[in-house]
Design a protein that fits this description.
The chain is mainly β. It has helices at 31-37, 122-127; strands spanning 5-8, 15-18, 22-28, 42-47, 52-56, 61-65, 73-77, 83-84, 86-87, 94-97, 111-113. Bound molecules: zinc ion (ZN) (2 copies).
């Protein structure tokens, strides 16, 4: 995999480096991931726990564990709210939110999981027109 794979949160306070093999890439459409992301799905890359090193801002990182589902958690930057890499509930995998990476990780999504739970508007969003930036004013 890429030797210089790095990532950061939106404000840049939390930054990290990834080394080693990326083992999976899942788009999760479950209702928890919709709530946690505020979007249609999360895009999570999996790697071994030791493969992610927080370079800066570790003191800004807070973990949230869902009380009703101990295996569901996330870490985020307390300054900007971006999700950042976190250990899964079982403690055997590091989850890298793909959108926080600075460059192409090489690996590609392997599955859309919890597909029946996808947002009712998801398919329409995929099919909607593609624009360079904002929709030009009419
Ligand atoms: Zn931040
Ligand atoms: Zn999910």
């Amino acid at each position: 995999m890429s030797e210089n794979l790095t990532g950061s949160c939106l404000c840049g306070e939390v930054s990290y480096e990834v080394t080693g093999e990326l083992k999976g890439f899942m788009m999760c459409h479950c209702s928890r991931c919709q709530k946690a992301s505020g979007s249609a799905h999360v895009a999570n890359i999996f790697t071994a726990p030791d493969n992610v090193k927080i370079v800066s801002g570790e003191d800004q990182v807070k973990r949230y564990n869902l009380a009703s589902a101990p295996t569901f958690g996330k870490c985020f930057c307390t300054n900007c709210g971006s999700v950042v890499p976190y250990l899964n509930g079982a403690g055997n995998a590091m989850i890298i939110p793909a959108g926080t990476l600075d460059s192409d990780p090489g690996i590609r999504p392997q599955a859309n999981i919890f597909w029946p739970n996808r947002a009712s508007w998801y398919d329409d969003g995929v099919a909607a027109q593609h624009c360079e930036e904002y929709i030009p004013k009419a």
